[in-house]
Amino acid sequence: MGPAMSDPGLDEAEVNARHHERMQRRQAARARVLATKTEERGLLIVHTGAGKGKSTAAFGMVLRCLGHNMRVGIVQFVKGAWQTGERMVLARFPDLVTCRAMGEGFTWDTQDRARDIAAAHAAWDAAQAMIADPTYRLVLLDELNIVLRYDYLPRDEVIGALKAKPRDLHIVVTGRNAPAELVEAADLVTDMTLVKHPFRAGVKAQQGIEF
Prior knowledge:
alpha/beta; Rossmann fold; 2 domains
């Protein structure tokens, strides 16, 4: 609330007029800033951090792309063993979305390091094929940060390939503990901060919220 709103000497019409003037100045300043932003290119985007919402936000971008008839490729490096609501929805758009759920769960689920590494390499092969395919406008590499953290893939090779992506392609990488080299290379990085989570109060993962 600005100073005019707290001035008891002003009537409602004067408050509205001053608000209108302030918004006009703000709009003009915003327009000047936007006029300097002329470049359009594909972005390398990273969603990381301990908070919930990394993949959720990425799938929101996927839905935006679908709304613009943009073709999307998705590789899930960990959650392939789960039946998720987003995959069931995206299956209704076979002409626009390719979703490869190639993970077999978290490493404590499989308890088989060699199997996890093989799955990660197969998923990365699929990801590279999507990145090289010019028909895709966005590629989502869901939980790639997890397999990089465990050194299931050669980190330098993966980050090098992401940095060398086609100019017009957007790539979104999710997962906790994004490598510092990936954060440095990215155009947009969001760190999800955990403030409060129902799991700590004994609430289990639920349909529509976690999967």
